[in-house]
Every structure is written in structure tokens, then in C-alpha cells.
Amino acid sequence: MPESKNRRKKPARRPGGSGRTAPAAGPQVDEELARLAAEGLPGGSTAYDPDATAAAVAQELTESSRHGSPESHAPTPTWYKAVMLGLLVVGLLWLIVYYLFQGAYPVPGIGTWNIAVGLGLMMAGLIMTTKWR
């Protein structure tokens, strides 16, 4: 069967493995990489000092890992929890009352929009739970 014209031919394998060899990283390469890394750190020192480099990297990682000020990790106030749970419970009760009294209560003039009001109250409480700590 003839081969397709568009098909690529694989190159012949070289004896002794895949033919690829990884370059050996010697001490000169390591020193050069360390010097380049030190230049990129705050302060831009060209002299390689392992202790100073490690301290600078640790400081940079610590600063970048903070997601906000310590104030943002304070516990949620009691009033926030009460409002959040209140909205969830009032929304649920709104729907229960609407279905038990077949639309005569809580607000008879808006009809099936009572369902939207109950779900809206519950959604507001649910959204508040995302900020609860």
C-alpha cells in the first residue's frame, strides 16, 4: 500500500538511546543563576549572599501570601449573623405562609410575586453567608 504524500517520515533513531542529552549544570551555571535571581530581588544586589537571598525570598513570599489586612480576618459581628439568619428564616416563612394560605397571605395583592419575595429574602441571606467568618 503506497504511503500518503502528506505523511511525514520519522527520522531514524540514533544508536545509544534517544539521542538527546541534557546539558550538565555545573557550579558556574548555578552561580550565574543565583546571581541573576539575586538581581531580581528587592534591593537588586549583584553580590550573591545565600542568607540575604533566602531572607528576601521569604519576605517576598510572606507579603504576597497575605490577602488583606488583619482587620479583614476579624470574626463576624453578632448583628451580621442575626440579620443573615433572619433573612433566611423570614424568606422561608414567607414561602410557607404563601403556600399554606393559598395566596391569601402574606401580601394578597401581588399574587405569585410572593414567591419572588420569599426567594429574594432567602437569596439575600445566602449571599450574606459568603462574608461570614
Architecture overview:
The chain has helices spanning 27-40, 50-65, 78-100, 113-129. It is mainly α and 133 residues long. The chain has four helices and no strands. It is 53% helix and 0% strand.
Task: Please give a quick description of this structure.
The protein has helices at residues 27-40, 50-65, 78-100, 113-129.
- How many β-strand runs? 0
**Average pLDDT, all residues:** 78
How do the helices and strands follow one another from N- to C-terminus? HHHH
What would the principal axes of the Cα set say about the shape? Answer: elongated
Describe the secondary structure blueprint for this structure.
Blueprint: H1 27-40, H2 50-65, H3 78-100, H4 113-129
Relevant terms:
133 residues; mainly alpha; 4 helices; 53% helix
